[in-house]
Amino acid sequence: MKHVYVDSHTHLDDFPPEEIDGVLERARAAGVGAIMLAGTTLESTAACVELARSRPMLLAGVGIHPMDVTAPVDGECADTLRRAAMSSPKVVTMSETGLDFDRGAPDLSLQYQAFRAQIRLGLELGLPVIFHSREIPGQPELHMEALKVLRQEQGWRVGGAMHYFQGDERSARECMELGFYVSLAKPLLRRPDLQAIAADLPLESIVLETDTYPQPFKGSRDKWTEPRDVPLVARKLAELKDVPVEEIERATTANFLSMCQRAGAPGRADAVRAALEG
Predict the structure, then answer these.
(1) pTM score, two decimals?
(2) DSSP-assigned beta bridge partners for residue 10
(3) How far is Cα 110 from Cα 129, in angstroms, rounded to an integer?
């Protein structure tokens, strides 16, 4: 298997179809070998699975984002997610689910129900859970809520990752104790508090991502975050840990593969290897 980066979380399905190949070409040129697509609704999930089928380097997750929860994840909704997950070996995670406490977020009782239902589906299907956690500014303890639910639902049996990690030292430690990875992205480039936490994290507990989605608010198109930016995060992490960037590349890619392999769904680790090998 080549030593290449994995972008463990993106929303490429939100891009116009004519842009996808350019995004992937730039990613390959930067040394990114596999890219995860995260579903946010039933429609988005279907689009992610179909897009992953169409490009060798793409993998897919299935899920309902906490900001998109409009009703309980009932039997019919779970069946739709289940069918999507089982329709292709390129579906390797439950993603994106979790909790969001931000202003304007959906009713928390709906979010908790949806999160629990998706963790249970991940356990049933042997898929790691990549989860969202957004606190109210100034209340970092709210990150513990998602971790508490994962502990109660035995999410540690399949593991996963805390997506776009911006929590505190306590939540990072709890995440690792549960057997979950900490997923680092571009906030690592600008936040000293996050840099201090990342410097002390064991390398075997880290995966990398960009959370790529269309960003017209940035003005110039070349300023948008893309999977090609994973090496920027890796270089900052290498600097913080005082190790060669190649060590970050090897470890974080191996961690992603291990995450998918450990969860136990047949063929999923093979799908990751195939994506990495191009």
Answers:
(1) 0.96
(2) 37, 212
(3) 18
Reading the block at residue 114, the tokens are 């949806």
Q: For the chain, what is the radius of gyration of the CA atoms?
A: 17
Tell me the sheet residues that pair with 183. 207
Nearest to 89 by CA among 278, 273, 266, 276: 266
Residues 6+ apart with CB under 8 A from 235: 245, 248
CA nearest to 8, candidates 276, 214, 244: 276
Give the span between the Cα atoms of 155 and 205, in whole angstroms.
16
Taking alpha carbons only, the member of 99, 9, 123 closest to residue 59 is 9
CA distance 254 to 248: 10
Alpha helix (H) residue ranges in the chain? 17-29, 42-54, 75-86, 108-125, 143-152, 169-177, 192-200, 230-241, 245-263, 268-277
* pLDDT computed for residue 45 by the predictor: 98
Per-residue pLDDT band for 267 (boundaries 50, 70, 90) equals confident
- The first and second tokens of residue 132, run together, are 């969202």
Per-residue pLDDT for 132 more than 70?
A: yes
